[in-house]
Design a protein that fits this description.
Layout: H1 10-44, H2 52-82, H3 86-98
Length: 103
């Protein structure tokens, strides 16, 4: 999304870099949890006598990690928008809305 911001000034570029770095650091443990939970979930599905309750618990773990990732991502989008000028917000907002289109 940062590359799609039209004519960012030097302070905006610095802020964007800082925000992206923070997002990456903040999401890292949840992305690891997501990968691990999905791996374990897939491994559980090939066990002959797996209990659905255990599958449900693992799905809850997976979704909790995904929830945290999404919260951080949308917090980041709002934070990014806050540093934009009114003119920059229009194309930024359009790009955010494009993300919700069915592909």
């Amino acid at each position: 999304m940062a590359a799609q911001i039209s004519d960012p000034d030097a302070s905006q570029k610095a802020s964007i870099d800082k925000m992206h770095h923070k997002l990456h650091i903040d999401q890292a443990p949840f992305k690891l949890q997501e990968v691990q939970a999905l791996k374990e979930l897939n491994e559980m599905t090939i066990i002959d006598d797996v209990k659905l309750e255990n599958i449900d618990v693992k799905i809850d773990e997976l979704m909790a990690a995904k929830t945290q990732i999404m919260r951080l991502r949308y917090e980041h989008l709002i934070e990014m928008r806050a540093i934009l000028s009114d003119a920059q917000k229009v194309p930024y907002d359009k790009n955010v809305l494009k993300r919700s289109l069915v592909k």
